[in-house]
């Protein structure tokens, strides 16, 4: 009997030690590098406002914008050496996103979604024109060809007075067969960014008050309803969402959180890194390779977080110049920059030193 008890104890010890050896701590990425060599490519005679950029490589980029003065400049292609304006008239592009180089979507106002098939752009969705209204598609995101979502807004122009301009956020879904509106907000709202994450839909949106001011929200769409995740009701701060390497970062101004399984966990606060916010402001967008290799959209520059500190990785000549979109490739990062003082648009490409 004693031998049996002793053998049982030995088996329990072995199993316990084996389980401990099998437990692994969450992977912590290495600190991101900052030794980039920079190249600037300027768009000549650019008169449009930048809205978006998407591509499969630094040599195959599509750039979108709005309110341009020249035909074709609001949707341009960059092949690594030169920019080429689109030879089709496609105005006021607010979002570009794709699955690959032969299946790219662009959303505009006038209720139109375009698709690029590798050769040309064609209208894939064109909503009926209704007097005194407009439909604007602001953001496209998805995970596969049967799971694509677009956020945007229905604008109602009751008069030329701003207080009589009513907007209602909406969501459209492409299910592989066609586009369908799955949500239209009853309240006065403005839907900006939408992100598909963990089989959930998160939306950056604003909700308007009767006096014309608004509150900033991050919400989840579920079962035909909108649920609050994070908000600012002081009308002082903006909220935003950014997907980095399958981790969702949510921020309220300088406070940045990780969102996992619907739960917020504090990540970093930019106020703790000695940034002089009298000279700049965090504008809300973040790009990166992982949580320890992040690039922050700042007024007047791009800051980098490497897991321990924040430093400028690139500074511009004035605080009204900033990146409007960023793309991260293996050893190369690309930003589309707008200089609102000198009225310039250019690509900033950084390559890690070998």
Describe the structure.
By secondary structure, the protein is mainly β. The chain has a domain at 242-315. It has one helix spanning 2-22; strands at residues 36-43, 49-57, 60-66, 75-78, 83-85, 93-100, 103-108, 112-116, 121-126, 133-144, 147-157, 165-174, 179-184, 189-197, 200-208, 214-222, 225-232, 239-244, 247-252, 255-260, 263-269, 282-290, 293-298, 301-305, 310-315, 321-328, 332-339, 344-352. It has a four-stranded antiparallel beta sheet, with no helix packed on it. A four-stranded antiparallel beta sheet has the order 2-3-4-5, with no helix packed on it. Strand 10 and strand 11 (147-157) form a beta hairpin. It is globular. The termini are far apart. 33% of the residues are buried.
Beta-strand percentage range: over 45%
Q: Would you report the number of β strands?
A: 28
State the order of secondary-structure elements, H for helix, E for strand.
HEEEEEEEEEEEEEEEEEEEEEEEEEEEE
Which of globular, elongated, flat, extended, rod-shaped describes the shape? globular
**Major beta sheet, specifics?**
4 strands, antiparallel
Provide the structure class: mainly beta
Tell me the Rg in angstroms: 23 Å
Residue-averaged pLDDT: 90
Can you tell me the residue ranges where pLDDT is under 50 for at least 5 consecutive residues?
1-15, 18-25
Strand line-up of the largest beta sheet: 1-28-27-26
Number of helices: 1
How far apart the termini lie comes to: 67 Å
Helix content: under 10%
